[in-house]
């Protein structure tokens, strides 16, 4: 089968700019290669001359601090270079967290416990991934707590969990999902049962904080907490409860000044609350797209990200089945040793 000729183009990025593209076609595959310079995707460095594959649903931003040349091949919904990016501010947040880790090491205390909050589709998961990757690249071993039951990244929808992050996230597959601590909630949004949600959060926070004492490196590295996009009414109460349960000492608020001021009012003064802008590359997801993402998470849970085989399942009436016994015909008793009989 001959391959179709796919559009391809080289992008020359200046320092502190990023290439953004989206893949919407169901059968499309887009490949990115770093030709020269240095670049990263959500905090994970790209390897020079290595081809990275992206499929339907990918919304990618590849950033460079020093400038680079990227080769993009395949059909994209949109692709462009942007110089308007909050990456420098996100880097400053990482630097502040690293200073807190250094102090924690000196005093043998718990490192920064940071909660990232904001409404839907502002890049909370992306910021968490960036902060985790930057920490790991400096030799840290932070914990990642994902409390988003609808669009979480650690397990199937309807669950929350914590995982120890020991290496940068994969460019194509995201955060490693080896040995996570998962708690079942059973609803795709906390509004399904707010009382149960708070109880599960409290239990997960208790176990997570206790586990930090087992390893000093993890204890000093701290926790990055991702949250749901429900920030009003009971949703806001859930955020405050999460902050209290995890004993956070820093909160990053993305793109909502109202939420920022409410947290300043209700959270103890020793907790640092920082307002950050969202990236211009963040894409709003429709209700249908969110449902598709949940279905994809369930599929990946059972089959993984890349499946070399393509299993199919069929529904057949039992009455239509015919059962056969496979094997050679039984030997006559005369062929058996004296006193032995054929067992059927």
Automatic annotation (TrEMBL):
Residues 118-304 form the Clp1 P-loop domain. GO terms for cellular component: nucleus. GO terms for biological process: mRNA processing; tRNA splicing, via endonucleolytic cleavage and ligation. It is found in: Nucleus. Residues 13-102 form the Clp1 N-terminal domain. One of its GO terms (molecular function) is polynucleotide 5'-hydroxyl-kinase activity. Keywords: ATP-binding, mRNA processing, Nucleotide-binding, Nucleus. The keyword Nucleus applies. InterPro entries: Clp1/Grc3 (IPR045116), Clp1_C_sf (IPR038238), Clp1_N (IPR032324), Clp1_N_sf (IPR038239), CLP1_P (IPR032319), P-loop_NTPase (IPR027417). SUPFAM superfamilies: P-loop containing nucleoside triphosphate hydrolases. Pfam families: CLP1_N, CLP1_P. This is Protein CLP1 homolog. It comes from Glossina pallidipes.
């Amino acid at each position: 089968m001959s391959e179709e000729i796919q559009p391809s183009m080289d992008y020359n990025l200046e320092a502190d700019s990023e290439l953004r593209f989206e893949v919407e076609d169901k059968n499309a595959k887009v490949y990115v290669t770093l030709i020269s310079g240095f670049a990263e995707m959500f905090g994970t460095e790209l390897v020079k001359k290595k081809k990275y594959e992206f499929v339907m649903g990918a919304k990618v931003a590849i950033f460079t601090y020093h400038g680079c040349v990227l080769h993009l091949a395949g059909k994209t919904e949109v692709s462009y270079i942007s110089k308007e990016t909050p990456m420098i501010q996100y880097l400053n947040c990482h630097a502040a967290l690293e200073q807190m880790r250094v102090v924690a090491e000196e005093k043998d205390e718990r490192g920064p416990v940071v909660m990232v909050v904001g409404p839907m589709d502002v890049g909370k998961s992306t910021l968490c991934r960036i902060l985790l990757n930057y920490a790991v690249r400096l030799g840290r071993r932070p914990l990642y707590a994902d409390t988003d039951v609808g669009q979480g990244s650690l397990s199937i929808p309807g669950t929350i969990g914590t995982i120890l992050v020991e290496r940068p996230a994969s460019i194509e597959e995201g955060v490693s999902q080896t040995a996570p601590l998962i708690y079942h909630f059973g609803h795709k949004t906390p509004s399904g049962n707010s009382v149960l949600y708070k109880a599960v959060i409290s239990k997960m926070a208790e176990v997570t904080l206790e586990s930090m004492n087992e390893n000093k490196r993890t204890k000093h590295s701290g926790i990055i907490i991702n949250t749901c996009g429900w920030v009003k009414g009971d949703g806001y109460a859930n955020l405050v409860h999460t902050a209290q349960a995890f004993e956070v000492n820093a909160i990053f608020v993305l793109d909502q000044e109202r939420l920022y001021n409410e947290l300043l009012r209700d959270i103890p003064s020793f907790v640092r609350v920082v307002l950050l802008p969202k990236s211009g590359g963040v894409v709003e997801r429709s209700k249908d797209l969110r449902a598709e993402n949940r279905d994809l998470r369930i599929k990946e849970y059972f089959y993984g990200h890349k499946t070399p085989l393509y299993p199919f399942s069929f529904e057949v009436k039992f009455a239509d089945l015919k059962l056969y016994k496979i094997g050679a015909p039984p030997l006559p008793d005369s062929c058996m040793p004296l006193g032995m009989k054929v067992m059927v």
